């Protein structure tokens, strides 16, 4: 398993290996499925024909709903393999202009924010926030508008939510005057 926890809509990879098998020339075609396909689904069809010489296949699974699932691989005459539990999570983020930070909380399967599972984060260095007022998500990124800095901060959104160490702030002081929000449409950003 590439990751034991992924964000909703993100992927993880499962590597299946045929081991301790000598002289297998007739392809072993495994059946690989998630035990809870409402939570985790294979992303695209993977054609896997395992032999002694070609003994590794990789499967990609996408998180479809919040929850957890395992992945089971089976083939006639071979031992069934079950992955560790894979959790699909979802995060909510809130900005705090006074502290130049944001708070990220886990959202459970019922769509409720788990208030005991929140973390407040203040990006630093080239990604520091400056009185953030707006937050939007687009194409795997989070965008904060910085009211005092007349700028925006772009951060990568990964399997564990916003990756604060990836944040970069870009000044648009010649074009912005105390931006308080951002929205995306048709390949354009609007402040």
Verbal overview:
It is a single chain. This protein is an all-beta fold and 191 residues long. The protein has strands spanning 5-7, 11-17, 31-34, 40-42, 56-63, 67-69, 71-74, 81-82, 86-96, 101-107, 113-121, 132-138, 141-146, 151-158, 161-171, 183-185, 188-190. The strands form five sheets. Strands 1, 6, 9, 10 and 11 form a five-stranded mixed sheet that branches. It has a four-stranded antiparallel sheet with strand order 12-13-14-15, with no helix packed on it. A three-stranded antiparallel sheet has the order 2-5-4, with no helix packed on it. β13 (141-146) and β14 (151-158) form a beta hairpin. The radius of gyration is 22 Å and the shape is elongated. The two termini are 40 Å apart.
**N→C terminal distance:** 40 Å
Largest sheet: 5 strands, mixed
**Whole-number average pLDDT?**
91
Question: Which sequence of SSEs, written as H and E, runs from N to C?
Answer: EEEEEEEEEEEEEEEEE
Which blocks of ≥5 consecutive residues have pLDDT under 50? none
Beta strand %: over 45%
Q: Given the helix and strand composition, which structural class is it? A: mainly beta
Task: Tally the beta strands.
Answer: 17
Helical residue percent?
under 10%
Radius of gyration: 22 Å
Given the structure, what is the number of helices? 0
- Label the overall shape: elongated
């Amino acid at each position: 398993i590439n990751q034991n926890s992924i964000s909703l809509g993100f992927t993880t990879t499962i590597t299946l290996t045929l081991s301790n098998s000598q002289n297998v020339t007739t392809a072993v075609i495994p059946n690989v499925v998630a035990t809870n396909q409402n939570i985790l689904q294979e992303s695209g069809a993977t054609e896997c024909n395992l032999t002694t010489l070609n003994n590794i296949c990789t499967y990609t699974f996408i998180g479809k709903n919040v929850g957890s699932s395992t992945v089971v691989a089976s083939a006639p005459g071979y031992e069934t393999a079950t992955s560790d539990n894979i959790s699909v999570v979802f995060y909510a983020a809130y900005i705090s202009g006074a502290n130049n930070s944001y708070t990220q909380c886990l959202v459970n399967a019922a769509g409720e924010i788990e208030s005991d599972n929140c973390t407040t984060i203040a990006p630093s260095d080239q990604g520091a926030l400056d009185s953030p007022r707006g937050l939007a998500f687009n194409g795997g990124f989070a965008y904060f508008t910085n009211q005092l800095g007349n700028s925006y901060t772009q951060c990568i959104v990964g399997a564990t939510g916003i990756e604060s160490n990836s944040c970069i702030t870009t000044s648009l002081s010649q074009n912005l005057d105390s931006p308080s929000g951002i929205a995306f449409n048709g390949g354009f950003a609007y402040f």
